[in-house]
Amino acid sequence: MDQPYQAPAADIRTHVDATYQPQFFAANGRLGRMRYFVYGVGLTMLTYLALAIVGLVASLARGGLKQAEASAGVAMLVGFLAIAAMVFLLVMTVIYAVRRLNDINLSGWMVLLMFVPLVNIIIALMLLFVPGSRGANNYGPAPVANSGGVVAGFALSLLGLVFYIGIMAAVAIPAYQDYVHRVQSMSQQMQPGGDY
After folding, report:
1. No. of H helices and E strands in the chain?
2. Other beta carbons within 10 Å of 22
């Protein structure tokens, strides 16, 4: 029997099981935890590499220029390129955070909470540790499972982070111990009966 007011039949499973491949520079879609971390580290490394190349080219150009005006022009161009790179990094960081919030099935407008002190720590921890929605949510289909490249990038990023923290600790701990030793020796000298 043909009912003109009957709801159309739809295969819901195709929508629920649908996935998509996230892109590095895309501004829409969802982004899982591991990709969020790897994309953020990768974007930061690309930005720093671009800044290093611009600085190297500027130093080579500055060395070859004799006039002060030309040298000032190169410095201004380098400053402009550095500001453009940092603005690009900020915009992409916000886009990644919005995509990650969408994966948790939260509005991207919550990214504005990243600018509120102390609340930003909670939001950052949410972005790193709260798993995304299984299947499709209000913001689209789920991203595909992490590929071997994403997992390898995650492992290398964590290894680099541990290496960085180790180097910082190797520099900071002896410096702090030296500072404590100097303060103690100064306080002993300042006490009555101490050598001035």
Report:
1. 5, 2
2. 20
| Residues 168/70, Cβ–Cβ less than 8 Å | no
What's the whole-model pTM score?
0.72
Q: What is the pLDDT along the chain (196 residues), one digit of tens a residue?
A: 566 676 666 555 545 567 788 888 888 889 999 999 999 998 988 888 888 888 888 777 766 655 656 667 777 888 888 899 889 999 999 999 999 999 999 999 999 999 999 999 999 999 999 999 888 888 889 899 889 999 999 999 999 889 989 999 999 999 999 999 999 999 888 877 655 5
CA 70 to chain centre: 36
From CA 26, how far away is CA 92, in angstroms rounded? 9
Token readout for 135 is: 């299947």
**DSSP assignment of 135-162, as one string?**
S-BTTBSEEPPPPHHHHHHHHHHHHHHH
C-alpha gyration radius of the chain: 26
Are the CB atoms for 143 and 102 separated by under 8 Å? no
Torsion angle in degrees (nearest 10) through CA of 189, 192, 193, 196? 40
